[in-house]
Amino acid sequence: MTTANQIDLLINHINYHIELSQYDIGKISEVIEFKELKKKDFLISPGDRSNTMNFIVQGCMRSFYLDENAQEHTLQLGIEEWWINDLYSYLSRKESRMYVQALEQTKLILLPRLKLEKLYFEVPEVSHFFRMKFQNAYVSMQERIINSMSDEAYERYTDFIKTYRDIEQRVPQYIIASYLGITPEFLSHLRKKNS
Amino acid sequence: MTTANQIDLLINHINYHIELSQYDIGKISEVIEFKELKKKDFLISPGDRSNTMNFIVQGCMRSFYLDENAQEHTLQLGIEEWWINDLYSYLSRKESRMYVQALEQTKLILLPRLKLEKLYFEVPEVSHFFRMKFQNAYVSMQERIINSMSDEAYERYTDFIKTYRDIEQRVPQYIIASYLGITPEFLSHLRKKNS
DNA sequence: GTTCTTTCTTAAGCTATCTTAAGAGTTTTT
DNA sequence: AAAAACTCTTAAGATAGCTTAAGAAAGAAC
Question: Can you list the domains of chain B with their CATH numbers?
């Protein structure tokens, strides 16, 4: 996959939501950086500060944190054409407490904050695009709280499969369990019981 | 409490975070609307669309929704100088699935979206202020997911008391239970066991 | 193709939390 | 001040989900 192809993927993705001119596309292309991660590599580790918005061109990633008992809890999963980050750190500019990790060999496009904020002025559509992204992030967080409070684990699991069919195929079950907030053993149990 | 006092409270609140000129203050004052709710009145009900940002001048409010079993789940609590809303509905412009309700007699200042968006251009500081508010809302949602996944109920309860000491005093326990995601009976049990 | 590592399953016993139900306190309304 | 409505507590029995431990299966590395 050439870098030109990679840029096209990002541009099409943005263009799907808003209307971009040739000028806009040129401007966006100027701020792009590339990054490639091997399976299990970390994009962000606790103590880092996130200073980029990260678009998955190819591969699969997740963000998670460790609780006091060193249990992993997965907050976000993403594949091609998803954005992945510790938005807490990116927005607040504080140190992250999370890991953002590649689950497969992964190609990313990074948009550095400083250049991106300049771009907001030159191409206001991009500003709208990211405002929408932040809103959606908020809404999906709220959705998740609502689910976790009202649904039982088996229902959360079937919801997950319905919503993320393509991700479910590529991610180990123990990570799905850690996303759903249950142990892998219990997930295995649920799958058997209700199949 | 005069309306001038109420406006002052809002202006001081905003001014605490950003720097406002006399001109800015005048402009903000122009978009203000007042609303007063009796205990148990609803500001928003399922099916409504939220078109205002809502600042609590005096009183106490909460947002909650009902799950399939008609169980209440509290998402947000607020007292004086807090903002309360169904941000999902406000941001996405879709119908709310939530209730936003007064827990005491409550005085509110409402900022209608259309006027507010015009104000963003006239007073960019206000735009920054609300961007910060949205960010904080996101971060506190994430915080809440992290807590609900890693902590046991008793720990979540003591965290709640520490963080919201002033709210805890004014809100019935069954609402705190529904915020923590446990039954009121179990909260009562926890309070006894660990006191 | 064998070995090592990672992931998934099974099952038994345990614990946190829920359900139901009833009664005791509190507020609010009349 | 009495009645009504709301809130909190207690306790017994039920259940969802966890822990531990072991082995099976699948993938990756040599």
Answer: 3-123 (2.60.120.10)
